């Protein structure tokens, strides 16, 4: 077999066999197949697509490029959740403690922010001392003793995916539904998940801007799960406006803590309870979604989820004082408020522009490895559909200096649109695929 023949075959729109895909990924991982051939192949996939069978073969080849974690000796069922990424999406910080507090241990490997979408690891690192790098043994020990782990992915899990993703990022080959689906699912399978809740974001602040595309991606991931004998449910959720109010690392941790303390924005609380309920249902902890929802609500309202989160922070070296007194989290020196220029109804709070502004303030990175500022970001004070008086606060910019705050206010101005007629609220979820 030669790599060039497989590139040509895909270029001509033919279906690759699972052996051919496994050969290609093995060669790419070992370095025998160079980046330029892998990039050409990825572009052929972007343009020609893949069948579900090819996508499944690619998922397994990526998952098998490194170690596979076996969690069956540590937990009765390994349940995981994955969000396809969005703006203000700090659900993991609340959902995982809720599920763990209901007696279902959760060990999650998360990523860093990329582009305008945030990453759980960056958020957790705004808690002083919190360590995200754990060895596999530490991960397993903590899962057993605390029932909750939030770490980075070890280099040994699906290394081909990391290598291929880095190449796709710089060759215009990220936006391919089969490549995204296999990338996400390979990591979940390699990390030992047996039951997975996928939170697939739809809208201007998501990888998939339309419901049709997001549904295709969700269906494909559910299909991969079925073929791999995993229980998978996909929830399609809105990402036209940020989830909750806070966008930026410490600001999002603070909002997650407010929610764990029983407050927090209503949309964010509702989103977390719904995702947590699906995790409890899919793990078998409850037999109906209603029963699962009631367990999740009790765990949140009783403070049990908060206690779990605190235990997680302590176990990973974080300062529990920052959990008890969120005022100790990093704070930006300059805070400026942007006000509604006229009365009316909020028709748009563009998640992408808000996410990009947070990155420009220093909350995200332009390139992998760039440093970030945990304190900065944007807090949005209004939701689409809200009726606003002239001069109402639309959002606050948290910046490291006044020049950056001013630039952010200017960048944010097209994000908000106010109209005279009433506007319907955006749904939190569009549909559920099993
Ligand atoms: N997230 C992933 O993990 N992989 C992709 O390809 C896109 C988003």
Give me some keywords for this one.
Pyrimidine Nucleoside Phosphorylase, Chain A, domain 2; 4-stranded antiparallel beta sheet; 3 domains; alpha/beta; 434 residues; Aldehyde Oxidoreductase, domain 3; binds uracil; Transferase, Pyrimidine Nucleoside Phosphorylase, Chain A, domain 3; 4-stranded mixed beta sheet
Question: How would you describe what is shown here?
Answer:
- This protein has 434 residues and is α/β, with parallel strands linked by helices.
- The chain has 3 domains: 3-49, Transferase, Pyrimidine Nucleoside Phosphorylase, Chain C (Transferase, Pyrimidine Nucleoside Phosphorylase, Chain A, domain 3, Up-down Bundle), CATH 1.20.970; 71-326, Nucleoside phosphorylase/phosphoribosyltransferase catalytic domain (Pyrimidine Nucleoside Phosphorylase, Chain A, domain 2), CATH 3.40.1030.10; 331-419, Alpha-Beta Complex (Aldehyde Oxidoreductase, domain 3).
- Helix content is 45%, strand content 15%.
- It has helices at residues 3-11, 18-30, 35-48, 52-63, 92-101, 120-124, 136-145, 159-169, 177-190, 211-227, 249-260, 266-282, 289-301, 304-315, 320-324, 351-361, 402-412; strands at 79-83, 106-110, 148-152, 195-202, 231-238, 246-247, 334-339, 344-349, 377-380, 387-388, 393-399, 416-419, 429-433.
- Strands 1-4-5-13 form a 4-stranded mixed beta sheet, sandwiched between helices.
- β4 (195-202), α10 (211-227) and β5 form a beta-alpha-beta unit.
- α1 (3-11) packs parallel to α3.
- The model has no long low-confidence stretch (mean pLDDT 95).
- The protein binds uracil (URA).
- Residues 165, 174, 179-180, 183-184 line the site of uracil.
